[in-house]
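Students often ask why we bother encoding 3D structure as a string. The short answer is that it lets us treat folding as translation between two languages. Here is a chain of 88 residues written in the first language.
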Amino acid sequence: MSRRIDKSWVILRSIENGEHDRCVDLFRRPDGSFGFEEFRRDAEDVGAWTPVACHSGAAYSSMDDALGAAVKAVVWLGGALKEAQLRC
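And here it is in the second language, the structure alphabet:
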């Protein structure tokens, strides 16, 4: 688990890019708010996920709102979501 994801938060969805070296986690907090954080995974980090931004502090009223904000904030995310849709 990442350093920026509190243990009380529930990860609802984790979306990776095609290279599997970037990830966005969407989560729900105990207070019912939602959020997201972006991570990277590099070989020199022995495969550990490292946060690359400070998005987890923002709160959204729904997972859809958090996902929409993530797509706007994370450059590669929209393309990854489209690729996932095409595979289904």
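Translate back mentally: The chain has two helices and four strands. Keep this in mind for the problem set.
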